[in-house]
Amino acid sequence: MNAEASADWRDEIFEVLQTHDIKQVYHVPDAGHSRLIEHCQRSNSIRTVPLTTEEEGIGLAAGAWLGGQRSALLMQSSGVGNTINLMGLTKTLRFPFLTLITMRGEWGEFNSWQYPMGQGTPKVLEAMGVLVYSVDKASEVKATVDAAARAAFNGGQSVAVLLRQKLIGIKDFGKKTSK
Questions:
Q1: Example GO molecular function term (predicted)?
Q2: Which of 20, 71, 162, 177 is most buried when burial is the number of CB atoms within 10 A of its CB?
Q3: What is the CA radius of gyration of the chain?
Q4: Where residue 137 falls among pLDDT bands split at 50, 70, 90?
């Protein structure tokens, strides 16, 4: 297998995180982010912090920024609801915030419990003043995450990249993931 064939959009996200000097990555367990989390854990330049709940990542991001470091929060759309109270902190304290969100409750979802938050995620984020970028094609991942990081760290914005279910693949009871 050549390097091009083994390349993956999660590898491209990791490259963008390094390009933008991200030093801390916060996450809860998530199959959609697992390859990216593994890259970050193996990196000597990125500190990964597992969270018990997603909202912890917002407070840590504020602290990282105050300490002179850039960070990113990885989560699934079902965890966005846990962050709403603290999401306002990004605007109140005016610090840049970048989150990458694997989506559920969309394209081919089998779990009916995932639909409400999956459908509400963009609206909830926008209501909290977060810029929402969305990607459902692997060929657009790198440019989208790069643009989001620029908006966050150069433009001082709160930005979420929604990694749509068409991109991450659908889950099935009998299979791990498929496209």
A1: thiamine pyrophosphate binding
A2: 71
A3: 15
A4: very high
CA–centroid distance for 140 within its chain: 15
DSSP string, the chain: --HHHH--HHHHHHHHHHHTTEEEEEE---GGGHHHHHHHHH-SS-EEEE-SSTTHHHHHHHHHHHTT-EEEEEEEHHHHGGGHHHHHHHHHTT--EEEEEE--SSTT---GGGHHHHHHHHHHHHHTT-EEEEE-SHHHHHHHHHHHHHHHHTT--EEEEEE-HHHH-B--SSSS-B-
pTM of the model: 0.90
Alpha-carbon dihedral angle through residues 111, 28, 102, 126, given to the nearest 10 degrees: 100
> Both tokens of residue 167?
């991109």
Domain boundaries, the chain: 3-167
What's the pLDDT tens digit per position in 12-49? 999 999 999 999 999 998 888 999 999 999 999 999 99
Distance CA 64, CA 1 (A): 39
